[in-house]
Structure formats: structure tokens, C-alpha cells
TrEMBL record, chain A:
Identification of the protein by name: ABC-2 type transport system permease protein
Species of the source: Pseudonocardia xinjiangensis
Taxonomic lineage from the root: Bacteria, Bacillati, Actinomycetota, Actinomycetes, Pseudonocardiales
Keywords: Membrane, Transmembrane, Transmembrane helix
Residues passing through the membrane, by range: 21-44, 50-69, 90-120, 126-158, 170-189, 239-262, 315-333, 339-363, 383-405, 411-434, 454-480, 486-511
Coiled-coil region(s): none
UniProtKB/TrEMBL annotation, chain B:
UniProt-listed SMART domains: AAA (SM00382)
Keyword Ribosomal protein: no
Lineage summary: Bacteria, Bacillati, Actinomycetota, Actinomycetes, Pseudonocardiales
Stored Pfam families: ABC_tran (PF00005)
Gene3D superfamilies: P-loop containing nucleotide triphosphate hydrolases
Organism superkingdom: Bacteria
Record's subcellular location: Cell membrane
Protein name: ABC transporter ATP-binding protein
Species of origin: Pseudonocardia xinjiangensis
Membrane topology: Peripheral membrane protein
Gene Ontology molecular functions: ATP binding
Domain ABC transporter: 9-241
Keywords: Antibiotic resistance, ATP-binding, Nucleotide-binding, Transport
Length: 573, 257
């Protein structure tokens, strides 16, 4: 059966985008070579620290990798639900199929650097070289199994993510890390590059980092090789035994998690949802179409795991931006965390109709000018509240933590303008770039809500362009040696005006476009790819619309062979 | 006002081609005021496509539809105000409870909050969704039959003149189906008009006074149930018009082995 699964996986992979496979292969080979080079060129005293670090990096790569690559879950356990196979056999088979692939091959090449390490550390005594090399081979094999299995466990938890609050949080942390690395990762590249020669010479020194890294299972085979080379066979055996034990546990966990899930698809809930006694209690929001849409949007942002994921990823994106700032020695950046969250309003909201699945039919059959406008305006208000509250809160918290308050006014001005512009860009892109996902009651994976890389990119550049008036005032304010007080007032005023004008204009454009293209917008969700869904006319919005549709169809086609993790946020930036 | 014309719904040459294959081919049908019309046809006959074009969900390649004389595609806001629609298999605002969904929908339609609350409460009770509402069940947690019922409630909430229901009885339990039939009969007795699509001949024969048989995107026959079935049953008439497909003696022989 394992052979069948492997053949199936390879067959599916043959249909995936080839540049991705080539890129993965190149990166993997470079990584494996770098591991060997690091071992061989590091100073003898630093060699152990360097390899500890590199092995830990491989482990982290396998933990984060699944959300970046599409190969992780080529074979979904759910595909095999109806086969007469025991769950455990299926789990083992699926786990085994993961070992056939570029990732496992290059990782094997990398962890075999342990053997190189054993040879160069063990000295000239043949017995100790033999012991060290033997330990290294066994350790490398166990480490490979451990790494791959732990990655599958992480991925399975990510797949289960959308059923639990904790799972949503884990997925959000991963997205936040990836996004922040794309936006501000370069901040730490230069300090990191300049630190490499020092690191290769001195290792971690007396910093205690190696002690902490030593607790990672990825370090145990290395420590075992050290012990074997030093003649301490009991410690070596103990470390290898411990690694074998955790590997066995992780493999069992992976097998258990790689079984088809047939239970409830929604987050488990013990109490009534907040604010759900609408038929018996008083209303907080006005009893108008606008009040109705705002109420629905706020409830959805709060209750829908896919919408929650957008908010939580945005918050983690902001937190990681702050952390990168601290690492790069610019703690003042921490205050920008809120602007990062606000920036996500335009990107997370770029497919609001798609996120609701085919529910747009309600608006089509209930069509009236008032209802359409209320829908657009209500979605804007919902988006501003859902991301504005965490944006303001996070920036304030970061300023309190870092003790740097001198940039408070430009930061708040930035948040205000970015939210307003974001709400405008989001609704325009939601209408012209509407992208179907899996219908809400069939969603399983974090990426099932339907994302459009093209629309997100356009949204990003549009937000950055339309906040220009605020940037023009806020940046001088931030960097002036002794800014006059009126400049602070002006910055807030410009930001407020910028936000208001953009939000009003964007909403008006979106509402007018939706009104003239209502059945076509619905058709893009209900009958994707048919001529019915094609836009009409030759304006700029039609141009955007056409491109967004092609991007959506290409993503959908690619996803047919390899459903999850294909339409991830990697297209941002 | 053309509201007084005796025709509730008029489908006029509705045509839709999907990737070269006509899903609806000049579908024309007249639904008189106060009638309960059943639209029957085999899978893929074009029932859903025709109804989607009738209620404004799908723009026809040619042809149009009118509700009480108001063209759905020329004056959609006025026409749609008269329509109550239940589509088949589409999403709803899934993370709302049934009560929240009806409240949202009523207010969006411009109804007064107190009217919405009173009607929503009554609909939830009659459709036996009140117990789920007490538990705070979200629409996404509803069963298929419950989804049909809450969908029907959204179609009824604004007291439309014409109901267009796609497969309203699918997955609905027999007790709820009785309630549903009662609701539709009362609606018609009060001067409303109903179009339903269904696969179930006996249901259409029992419930509807008019029937249209549609196959391969074309209306094969339409009229009162008595006229269409003549001396035989509706199912026999249907099979005679649509064409029979018997399972031959030698086919699937392995199934019994």
C-alpha cells in the first residue's frame, strides 16, 4: 500500500507548478551544502555551536515549511476515508510517502553532516572515530525521521486548526511570522550576515545559547557524537536512546493525526454565541439596513474561524514586526506594530464576498440601492472595527513596553489613515476581485476561504499609494528635530481627512460597481470560469476585474491537484 | 399598476448557454396568480438555471422574466420586492443564528425592527427552529433540512407576492414537509402564487394545481395537472415525454453475485 501511495503522490506532484519544485530543490541543495560548509569551515572550538544552530534551523524550517510549500499534504487523509484500511496502516503509509521527496532527500544530505562532524572532531584514534561515526549515522537517521514526523504533526495541527481557537492561533502565528519576514525580514539580514564570520570563529561564546539549544532534540545526536568521540559511551547511548524515544512518540502522534477526520467541522462551543439573543433582547445597533450589515459583519468577524485567522495573523504580523525591530536594534519600530495591523485591513478584506461563499445571493434577490450601499458601508465599518481596535491597542501596548512615546502622533495618524484607506481598497477589491473559495460549510483548511494573490498585491500597492498625503505630513513630524506643535495637529487632521475621503470615495465606487455588476459578481462565485462571470466594458476596474479573475482561476486550477497551502499568503509583497 | 394582471410570473424565452451546451433553451412559462405550479424534470434539465434567470440571480443570454408585469431584468428593485426566493444549495451568512439571520435580512430589506422581530419569532416557531434558536445554534451547525427551513423563512419574511422555491422539500422530514405544504396552501389561498421545482412526482401531483415538464433545457408541456397527466399518472406522462431508460437484464449482473 505504501508503494501505491508513493506512486499517487508522485503522480499528483507531476501536475504541480514546476518552478516551485525547482526552487524548492535549489534551496534545499543550497541549504544542505551550507550545512556541510559550516561544519568544515567553522573554527574547531565553535564547530559544535555552529552545527547545533544549523540543525535547529533545519527543524524550524520543517515546522514552518508546510504553510509555504504545497507538497506537505499532497495526499489528504480524507481522500481515503472510504477505503477499507485501518486508520493506523493508512497513517503509516501516508507518513512513509512524505519521505519520498525533495525535502526529505536534502534534509538527509544535511543531517549526514553529522558524519563529517564526527570525522573531524574525533581525532586520530581509530576506535573513537568508529564510535563517533557510528553514533553519527544512527543519530542522523533518527533525526531525519524525527524532523519529518514532527513536521507532519505540526501540519496536521494546522489542518485541525480551524476547529479550535488554539489551532487558529497557531496558524496565525505562522502566517504572522511569514508575512513579517517578507516585509521587514531584511532588517535583520545585515546584522545576521555580519555576524556569520564571528559566529563561525567564536560560536555562541559564553552566552548560554548553546545550553538552551542543547535541549532541542535536533541537538542530541550532535551531543551524542561528542560524547562518543570523548569515549563516554554511556552518555552517547543515553542521548541516542532519548532521541529514539521522542522520535517514536512523534511518529505515533503523526500516524494518529494522519487519519481521516470525520467529526464536527466547526469550533466546539459550550455557550450561546455572544449577542445572539436578537429575538428577545433589545438592539444596540440601529434597526436600519446599515445597522443590520454592521451587526452581521461584527458577529462574523468574531465567530468565523477564517475571519478570526485574518485578525489574529494581522496581530501576530504586527508583533513580529516589533520583534524584528528589537532584534535589529531599532526598538522604536515597535510602535509601528499597529500600522502593520491596520495595513492588513486592506489585504484581509480584499475578498469579503468570497469569504462569505455564495451568500451574496441574498443581496441579489433583495436588491435595492439602499441595501447595496448598506452592505458596502457596513462591511467597511465592520473591517475598521475588527482591525482598528487591535491596531490601536497593539501600538499603544508596544509604546508602553518600549517606553518610546515620541512617535505616538505620527503612529496614530498612520493607523487612522491606513484603516480608512484600507477599508476603501478592501471593498473595491472585494467587488472587482471577487474570488470563490470552498463554500463556508465545507471549509476545512486555513487556506479554504479563497484568496486572490493578484487582488492582494493590488490592494497592498493601492493602500500604500493612497496614504501618501498622511505620510507626507507624518514623516517630517516623526523625524523633525524640534517639530512645531501645529505640525502634530496637522498630521492628525490630514490623516483623519485622508481616511474619511478615501473611505467615502472607495465605498461609493464599490457600491456603484456592485450595483451595475450584481448578477456578474454573484456569477463569479456561483459559476466561476463561465462567460456569465466575465466583466463587461473596458474601464480600469474591468481591467483589474479581468486580471483578478484569471488569477483566481489559475489558483483554483493549481489547487485541484494539490488542494491545501497553494493559495497561501506567499503572494503578498 | 400592473399588479392586478392575472399573470404572477411570466418566463419569456429564457436562454442560457454554458460552455457551448444550452442549459435553458427558450424557456417560456406563464404562472397565473393564485396558482401553485410545479416545475419537474430529470437531473440537469435546466430547472435551477431557469429559476435563477427568473429571479435575477443569473443574467440570461436572451429572453426575460416578469413578476406581475414588472420586468426582472429591466426594473430589478421593484420586481424583486415582490419575489420570495429559496435557491438550492447556496451559502447563507453561516455564523449567525437563525434568529439573527432573519433579523439581518428583514432590516436589510428595509422592514421595521419590531415587525421583523414579531415575524421572525413566529416563523421560527412554526418551522420548529425555535428550540435550535434557544440553544444558540448557528446556521452552519444546522442540518440540511433545517437549512431548507431557515431558507424558506428568509423567502417568506417580507410577505412577497410570488414564491420561487428550488427543491423546497429536499431533505425535509415528513412532519416538516406537512407544515411546509400547509404554509404554501395558505399562501396561495391568500392570493399569492408559488413555483416549486421538484423531482418527486407524487408531491407535485398532490400539492400543485399546475405543472410544467422540462427536459434538456426545453419546456415539453405545461398546464393544469389534470390536463398534463390526462388519463394516466403524472409520472407516466413524465416518463413518456422525457424518455425511458430501463436497466437491461444483462447489465450490472455482478451486483447480485
Amino acid at each position: 500500500m505504501v508503494g501505491e501511495l508513493i506512486r499517487l503522490k508522485l503522480a499528483i506532484q507531476r501536475h504541480t507548478l514546476s518552478w516551485k519544485r525547482v526552487l524548492g530543490l535549489v534551496l534545499g541543495v543550497v541549504g544542505a551544502l551550507a550545512t556541510w560548509v559550516a561544519v568544515l569551515v567553522a573554527a574547531p572550538s565553535a564547530r559544535s555551536d555552529v552545527l547545533l544552530f544549523v540543525l535547529a534551523a533545519w527543524l524550524v524550517g520543517w515546522l514552518v515549511g508546510p504553510i509555504l510549500t504545497s507538497g506537505a499534504a499532497v495526499l489528504r487523509p480524507e481522500y481515503f476515508t472510504l477505503l477499507p484500511l485501518s486508520p493506523r496502516r493508512l497513517g503509516f503509509g501516508l507518513l512513509a510517502s512524505v519521505f519520498v521527496g525533495v525535502g526529505a532527500a536534502v534534509t538527509a544530505g544535511a543531517v549526514l553532516a553529522l558524519v563529517g562532524y564526527a570525522v573531524v572532531t574525533a581525532g586520530s584514534d581509530v576506535a573513537s572515530v568508529a564510535a563517533a561515526v557510528g553514533t553519527a549515522v544512527v543519530g542522523a537517521a533518527l533525526l531525519l525521521v524525527f524532523t519529518v514526523a514532527v513536521s507532519r504533526v505540526a501540519y496536521a495541527l494546522l489542518g485541525a486548526a480551524m476547529r479550535t481557537r488554539m489551532g487558529v492561533e497557531i496558524a496565525a502565528i505562522q502566517y504572522g511570522l511569514v508575512l513579517s519576514s517578507m516585509f521587514v525580514g531584511w532588517l535583520i539580514v545585515s546584522p545576521a550576515v555580519s555576524a556569520v564570520p564571528v559566529f563561525l570563529r567564536d560560536g555562541f561564546g559564553a552566552s548560554g545559547v548553546s545550553g538552551v539549544l542543547g535541549l532541542f532534540p535536533s541537538s542530541w545526536p550532535l551531543l551524542a557524537v561528542d560524547a562518543a568521540a570523548a569515549g563516554d559511551h554511556a552518555s552517547a547511548a543515553g542521548l541516542i536512546g532519548a532521541l529514539a524515544l521522542v522520535t517514536a512518540l512523534v511518529v505515533l502522534a503523526a500516524v494518529a493525526l494522519l487519519t481521516p477526520y470525520v467529526g464536527n467541522r466547526t469550533v466546539r462551543r459550550r455557550t450561546r454565541p455572544w449577542g445572539s439573543r436578537v429575538l428577545t433582547r433589545g438592539r444596540l445597533l440601529p434597526g436600519t439596513p446599515l445597522g443590520a450589515v454592521v451587526g452581521k459583519e461584527l458577529r462574523t468577524w468574531w465567530r468565523d474561524p477564517w475571519r478570526s485567522l485574518e485578525i489574529r495573523s494581522s496581530i501576530w504580523f504586527g508583533i513580529f514586526v516589533a520583534i524584528y525591530g528589537v532584534i535589529a536594534g531599532i526598538p522604536q519600530l515597535a510602535g509601528l506594530a499597529g500600522i502593520a495591523v491596520a495595513l492588513m485591513a486592506g489585504l484581509s478584506g480584499a475578498n469579503l464576498f468570497g469569504q462569505d461563499g455564495t451568500a451574496l445571493w441574498l443581496l441579489v434577490v433583495g436588491q435595492s440601492r439602499r441595501a447595496l450601499r448598506a452592505d458596502i458601508r457596513g462591511r467597511q465599518i465592520g473591517l475598521v472595527v475588527a482591525l482598528g481596535v487591535p491596531a490601536l491597542g497593539l501600538s499603544t501596548l508596544m509604546m508602553v513596553l518600549s517606553g518610546v512615546f515620541e512617535f505616538a502622533v505620527p503612529i496614530y495618524a498612520g493607523i487612522l489613515a491606513t484603516l480608512g484607506v484600507g477599508s476603501a481598497v478592501a471593498v473595491v477589491m472585494s467587488v472587482v476581485g471577487v474570488t470563490p473559495g470552498v463554500d463556508p460549510h465545507r471549509r476545512v483548511n486555513a487556506t479554504d476561504a479563497g484568496e486572490n494573490g493578484f487582488a492582494i498585491q493590488v490592494a497592498l500597492w493601492a493602500v500604500l499609494s493612497f496614504v501618501a498625503p498622511t505620510v507626507a505630513v507624518a514623516v517630517p513630524l516623526a523625524f523633525a528635530a524640534d517639530p512645531p506643535p501645529w505640525l502634530a495637529v496637522a498630521a492628525l487632521g490630514v490623516a483623519f481627512g485622508n481616511a474619511l475621503v478615501a473611505a467615502w470615495a472607495g465605498g461609493a465606487v464599490a457600491a456603484r460597481r456592485l450595483e451595475s455588476h450584481l448578477p456578474e459578481t454573484f456569477a463569479r462565485l456561483r459559476y466561476p470560469g463561465t462567460t456569465t462571470a466575465k466583466g463587461r466594458g473596458g474601464g480600469f476596474l474591468d481591467y483589474l476585474s479581468g486580471h483578478a479573475e484569471s488569477a483566481a482561476l489559475a489558483a483554483a486550477a493549481a489547487a485541484k491537484g494539490e488542494k491545501p497551502a497553494e493559495k497561501t499568503k506567499e503572494t503578498v509583497g | 399598476m400592473p399588479i392586478d394582471t392575472p399573470v404572477a410570473l411570466h418566463l419569456d424565452g429564457l436562454t442560457k448557454v454554458f460552455s457551448g451546451k444550452p442549459a435553458a433553451d427558450h424557456v417560456s412559462l406563464t404562472v397565473p396568480v393564485g396558482s401553485l405550479t410545479g416545475l419537474v424534470g430529470p437531473n440537469g434539465a435546466g430547472k435551477t438555471t431557469s429559476l435563477a434567470m427568473t429571479v435575477g440571480l443569473l443574467r440570461p443570454d436572451s429572453g426575460t422574466a416578469a413578476v406581475h408585469g414588472i420586468d426582472v431584468w429591466a426594473d430589478p428593485t421593484r420586481a424583486k420586492a415582490l419575489l420570495g426566493v429559496l435557491p438550492d444549495g447556496l451559502a447563507l451568512p453561516e455564523r449567525l443564528t437563525g434568529g439573527e439571520l432573519l433579523t439581518y435580512w428583514g432590516l436589510l430589506r428595509g422592514m421595521r425592527a419590531d415587525v421583523v422581530r414579531a415575524r421572525a419569532t413566529e416563523l421560527m416557531r412554526i418551522l420548529e427552529l425555535d428550540e435550535a434558536e434557544d440553544r444558540g445554534l448557528l446556521v452552519i451547525e444546522y442540518s440540511t433540512g433545517m437549512r431548507k427551513k431557515i431558507g424558506l423563512a428568509t423567502a417568506l419574511l417580507h410577505a412577497p407576492k410570488v414564491l420561487v422555491l428550488d427543491e423546497p422539500f429536499e431533505a425535509v422530514d415528513p412532519v416538516s414537509a406537512r407544515v411546509l405544504r400547509g404554509i404554501l396552501r395558505r399562501f396561495v389561498a391568500a392570493g399569492g402564487s408559488v413555483v416549486i421545482s421538484s423531482h418527486v412526482m407524487s408531491l407535485v401531483e398532490d400539492l400543485c394545481d399546475r405543472v410544467a415538464i422540462i427536459a434538456a433545457g426545453q419546456v415539453l408541456t405545461a398546464g393544469t395537472v389534470a390536463d398534463v397527466r390526462g388519463a394516466s399518472t403524472l409520472e407516466d406522462t413524465f416518463v413518456r415525454l422525457v424518455g425511458e431508460r430501463e436497466v437491461g437484464e444483462e447489465e450490472l449482473a455482478w451486483l447480485a453475485s
